[in-house]
Amino acid sequence: MKNFLKQAQQLQQKLLEQLRAIKVEGSAGGGMVRIEMDGEQNVLSVKIEPEILKEQDSAMLEDLIVAAFNDARRKILEKTQESLKSITGLPFPM
């Protein structure tokens, strides 16, 4: 039992290391809004092309930010699932 717990802790540590290494970029509006996130779902950066600010349509910009965030989050989930599968050999649902 003690060996099993040690293996579980090692597996958890390996997964955390892989999650910390994940970096994704979600985008919306043809790349007009881009959000970079890490594997722990922390937002690292937000980039907004200046042309979109000229339109002065705050509702559209808000929608694009949400869409870019959701795109980045989806990519993180996919990469997390791939990491879990590579470590354990088992498929995990999203």
UniProtKB/TrEMBL annotation:
Transmembrane segments: none
Localization, UniProt: Cytoplasm, Nucleoid
Pfam families documented for this protein: YbaB_DNA_bd
Molecular function GO labels: DNA binding
Keywords from the named record: Cytoplasm, DNA-binding
Annotated GO CC locations: bacterial nucleoid; cytosol
Keyword RNA-binding: no
Oligomeric form and interacting partners: Homodimer.
Family affiliation: Belongs to the YbaB/EbfC family.
PANTHER family: NUCLEOID-ASSOCIATED PROTEIN YBAB
Role description: Binds to DNA and alters its conformation. May be involved in regulation of gene expression, nucleoid organization and DNA protection.
Protein name: Nucleoid-associated protein BXT86_03640
